[in-house]
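B., you asked whether I could sanity-check this one before it goes into the benchmark set. Here's the sequence:
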Amino acid sequence: MLGLAARGRNVASGEFQTEKAIKTGAGRLVVVAEDASANTKKRFVDKCSYYGVSIFFYGTKEELGRAIGKEYRSGLAVLEKGLAKSVKDLLEKAGYADAKVDLPPDAGEDWEEAGRAGPFRGGRAKDTSRKNLGHRGGTGWER
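And here's what the prediction gave me:
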């Protein structure tokens, strides 16, 4: 099923793309290799718990990569809702339990429909003015 999702470009693979998918709200389900480092596992569990995304630990890095036709992958995110539900059902049927992720207290059944829009969904606000850029030693971000 992961291979089908990958062929349809509905998978973000690798640590950085998976983390980006979680943060932007595009990731519907995260799968992390069981042999990933403790730091990687903790980072994904923390991100998924904050943004309310389901997370599973499955197989090795090699198995995850092979499932989507790539090399080693320590984590991946399924981006499409229907595929994520299918993959989740298959993992649960195979005996893998969803790592417990705490949803916000006010989250109901419509949490998925609302797009799990965490407080940072729109992106980080930053100063885009270009004052002093390129002269007088300024970096462009000072006032």
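One thing to flag: Residues 38-51 form the longest helix (14 residues). Otherwise nothing jumped out at me.
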